[in-house]
UniProtKB/TrEMBL annotation:
Residues 157-223 form the Thiamin/hydroxymethyl pyrimidine-binding YkoF putative domain. This is YKOF-related protein. It comes from the Bacteria. SUPFAM superfamilies: MTH1187/YkoF-like.
């Protein structure tokens, strides 16, 4: 019989969970180097790197949260970076790839053995000021480590309940505009799009030890809504 009580149970710290993101921005302009470095300067000057650790390689930048509120810090950084890149490119076409992971301590090792006396933290909804930059994103959510629940057909279906609830919340929020192959389309200000995805990711993370979400965000696209058929 477990001796763990509500009084002795503690909540996992940000550094134990491994709350972070991988981000890359791709401004479609010959001056992409100046645009990217200028946008990075902008978010740094705005104080959006506080409480975060950044590591850039040839592919992307890892953004690791060092302290709470982790989700708020990451959302503000990514939203600010995408908006700054759009402004630096004069409103031209910018694409950003964003991968968010919550519940993978050490990132590379992914040891989730937090113990029976450790609970998952519940994050408050993020609050982001409007950027004035419109965006469209293709968004996917991946709750990992399902409980061993199996249907009569032999298929575990628990993860779909989390995904469907997240999509419903995005629809109520007004950012989910359509379904797409393997994704949900989000539209709105960059801040609203990022807040939708981050809040859903964090909400699932309060009950599922490891959850990942992915967005491809586009601003200033020359392709009409819906694209060519």
């Amino acid at each position: 019989m477990s001796t763990t009580t509500e009084e002795t149970r503690r909540t996992a710290a940000v550094t134990e969970l491994g709350v972070g993101a991988r981000v890359s921005v791709h401004p479609h302009t010959d001056a992409f180097v100046d645009v990217i470095t200028g946008a990075l300067d902008d978010v740094r000057a705005a104080g959006l790197t506080e409480g975060l650790q950044l590591q850039t390689d040839e592919v992307s930048t890892w953004v690791g949260a060092l302290e709470a509120p982790a989700e708020q810090r990451i959302a503000a950084y990514v939203s600010g970076l995408v908006a700054a890149t759009s402004r630096r490119s004069g409103g031209g076409h910018v694409v950003a790839h964003v991968l968010l992971s919550r519940g993978c301590p050490g990132e590379a090792t992914c040891d989730l053995s937090l113990g029976s006396g450790v609970g998952l933290p519940v994050a408050a909804p993020v609050e982001l000021a409007p950027t004035g930059v419109d965006a469209v994103a293709q968004w996917s959510l991946y709750p990992l480590m399902d409980a061993a629940t199996t249907t009569a057909e032999g298929v575990s279906g628990e993860h779909m309940a989390h995904i469907e609830a997240a999509i419903a919340a995005a629809q109520r929020r007004g950012t989910a505009s359509a379904a797409a192959h393997y994704a949900t389309v989000l539209r709105g200000d960059v801040a609203d799009v990022l807040a939708t995805a981050v809040d859903a990711w964090a909400s699932v993370g309060a009950v599922v030890p490891h959850v990942v979400t992915h967005l491809t965000v586009s601003t200033g696209s020359p392709t009409p809504a819906g694209g060519p058929r």
